Amino acid sequence: MTKFVKGNEAVVMGALYAGCELYFGYPITPASEIAHGAAKWFPMLGRTFVQAECETASVNMMFGAAGAGKLCMTATSGPGFSLMQEGLSYLAGAELPAVVVDVMRAGPGLGNVYPEQGDYNPAVKGGGHGNYQSFVLAPASAQEMCDYTIRAFKMAAKWRTPAIVLVDGLQGQMMESVALPDAEEPRPDFSSWAAQGEAKTRANLVKSIYLDAAQQEEFNIHLQEKYARMAADAEGTTYLADDAELLICGYGISSRIARTAAETLRAEGIKAGVFRPVTLNPFPRAQLAAAAKGRKIMTIELDAGQFADDIRLNLALAGLGEEATRVKMVHRMGGQVVTVDDAVRSAKEMLA
Amino acid sequence: MKIIEQKGMYKEFPRCGKPHARTTHYCPGCGHGIVNKLVAECCAEMGLQDRTIFVDPVGCGVFTYYYWDAAHISAAHGRASAAATGAARARPDAVTIAYQGDGDLGAIGFNNAFQAASRGEKFGCIFINNSLYGMTGGQMAPTTLEGEKTTTTPFGRDPALTGHPLHVCEVFNQLQAPVYIARVSVADTKRIMQAREAIRRVFEIQRDHKGYALLEILAPCPTNFGMSPQKAAEFCMNEMEKEFPLGVVRDTEKGVAGVEPVKHPESQALAVKSVPRFPTCMELFATPDGTEAPPVEDDPAVPERRFKFAGYGGQGILSLGICVAEAARLEKRHTLWFPSYGPEQRGGSASCSVVVSGMPIGSPTVEHPDVLVCMNQPSYERFAKDVKPGGVIIVDATVPLAVEPPQGVKLYRVPAIKMAEDFGVPKAANTMMLAALRAFKATGLKDDSLETALCASFKKKPQLIEKNRELLRRAEEELKS
Q1: Domain span holding position A98
Q2: What distance in Å separates residue B315's CA from the closest CA in chain A?
Q3: What is the ipTM for the molecules in this complex?
Q4: Which of A90, A175, A341 sits opposite B325 (nearest CB)?
Q5: What pLDDT sits at residue B272?
C-alpha cells in the first residue's frame, strides 16, 4: 500500500507497524500532525493515545509505560524537546526503550515554527544530565520518516536506550509518497527486566539510582561499553562521491539540498558529491572518513554550526585532522532554509 | 535468633547494598516506616504482589523497592503520577500504586498528580504529608504549617511571603474523576488502624479497576521536626490535624455521609467490548481514505518540474497544489507537496510548492519555479521575479502587474476569479486556474490525470464533482478561445 501523506503522518504509520502500543504527547507546531494521527489511528487499532498535560508528563508517562514493558513514543518540537531532557536522561539511566520524534523548529526560546536543525547537540550529544546517549536517526523524506521510525523502535529495543527521530518542520509538513510495510514488526518481550504486573516480573526493578559511587561508576562503564558497541549500527550514505573533489555533508533536509547542489555543480563540470549520515548517533565515522579523505568538505546545515563541529570532530578522531581544519559551512538559521543557489555559490568560492 | 517475617516485604534487604540487612533506612519514629509496613501487609494479604507495580518517588520514599516484594519502577522527582499513568495504561490488568511525598506531589509534581486525577487514571496514589522535605534536608514544602520552622523558613513560614499550607485532598476533591479521596494519619495506634483500612481501600479500588484513588497520610518526621518520636507524633496530631482534618473526603463506590457521589463515565469511544477484533495496520491502511496512490516508478526521461501556487488564504491555493500533486502521483511520478504553515496560514497570503520528477527529488524547496500560479498581488510581487527562464506565470486578471516578469518567462493573465463568479461558483476560482494550467499545457501532466485528481479532491463532497468537472471543461474552452 502506497500513501501520499505528510512526513508527520508517515511517522505515526511507521510507529504502528513497529508495534508501538502507547502514544503520549503534548501538541506543538510543527509536530502536531503526529499527535493528530496518533489520536485517530492508535484507538482504531486498540492501542493507547494519551494527551499529556505537558512534555515533562509525556516523557515520564513513557518512563512508566516503557518500564512496564511496552513500546511507546512521543513527538514534539524544540521547546517540548528541551522539557524532555531530564526524562531522556532517566530513560537512558534506567535503560528503557522509547522513541521521541523531534520535529525541529527555530529557536532559541519561543523562536518560530519554521524549520531549523538547532537541536542537533541536545539530541546527538545527550541534552540531559549525566553520561548517556540516545540512538539518533535522521530521515530525509516522508518514506524515511516511516521507515526510520520503525528502525528507531528496533534500535531502542535492541540497545535499551531512547531513540530519537530527528527531523525538521519542513519535513513534517511535506507530503510525499510512502510505501507502507507488508507486515507489522513482532512485539519484543521485555519480561526479563520490565515491571509488568505479572508473576514472572515480580522481582523486576526499573531504576536509574545507584547510591553507591562505585556501583554508579560501574553502571556508567557498562553504559559506555554499550554505546561503543552501538557503533555497529551506524549508517552513512554517499551520492556521486567516488571521484568528488568537494564533499558536501548534510543530514535530513540538508542532505537533499546537498544532493541537488551536487547535481547542479556536476552539470557545471565541478566534481561534487554528498555524504549523508543516516544515524547521527552512533555517527558513521568510518564511512565519513572513507568519503572525505583528501577532499574539500562543505557542510549544509540549518543551525549555527553544531553539525559542522561534529563533522570536524569525527574527521579528527578518524585521523583526518587536515581535512577537519578545511571544513567550511553554508548555513541559515531562524527558520530560513539554505537555497541550492547559496550552496552552489559557496562551493564555487571554496574551490576558487 | 528468630527472624520475624514481615508480610509483603522481602526477608532481607540486599538492594540497600548490605547483603543481609534487616532494618529499613527510616529514622526512628518516621511515618514512612509504618506506612511501608501497612502497604506491604495489605498488598500481600490481598494476594496482589504478583499483579502490583509500585511507582516509587524521589525523597525518603525512594527506597521502598528495598522492602516491598513486588515489581517497582523508580520515577523521577515529582513524576511518579506521570510514570504511574504510563504504567497503568500499559498494563491495565496490573495494580499500579504511586507512592509520593509532599515535595514530590505537592510542589514539583503537583500538576502531573492533579491532571492524572482529573483524567481518572486507574492507579492509586499514596501521598505522605510530613509538612516538609525529608530527605533533602527539612526544607519548606507546600504543606508546611504557618509559622513552622524549616531550613528554608528559619523564622517560621510567613504566609505573607510563602502563602498558606496546600490542602491536596480538598483541591483534588474539586475534580470529577477520582473514585476515592481520603486523609489519614499514622501518629498513634488508633489512627494506624484507620490508615490500614484506607490503604486496603486504595488497593481494592485498583484490584477492581474502579479508577483513581488518592490517600493522603499525615506522617511525623522527628529528624526534621527536631523532636523526639513521641513529640513528633504529638505535633502531627495536635498541629497538623488542625490544618489537615482527617476523614474520607470521597468514596463514590461506597458513599460518604453528606457527600453526593459524582460518577466518572466509562469510555464510550471504541469500547473494547463492541469491537470483536481490532484491525491490523495492513487492514487499517488498506481502507481507502483518498491518500492511497500507485507505487512511484523511476523514469529518467521525465524532467523535474517545480511549481509554486500562491494567493490569499481561502482561495483554494493549497488544494490546487494538492490537485496537481495528485495528478502527478497518478502518473507514478516522484511528487512532493509542501505548504506554507504556522501563523502564515491564518489570514494573509498562503502558498504551497509542488515538485514533480521522474527521478528522486533532491531539495524540496522551490526557489525557482517552472510554473507560478498567483491569485493575489503580494504573492505575484514576491515570487514572479524568481520564475525560471522558459517558465510560465499564470496570474489572476485582477492582479496589477507592478513587476515585469523575468526575461523568457511566459505570462498568462486569466480572469479566474471573474469566471468563477460568472459561472455562479465564486469558490471555484482555483478550478479555473487548473483549467488554465491544462489549457496552456503548463504541468507536463496528462489532461485525464488532472481531471481525475480534481474529481478526487471533491471526494468528501461528491455532489460537487460533476459541477467542477463541467466548470473545468467550460473554463478550458473559454480560455482556449
Answers
A1: 2-232
A2: 20
A3: 0.97
A4: A175
A5: 54
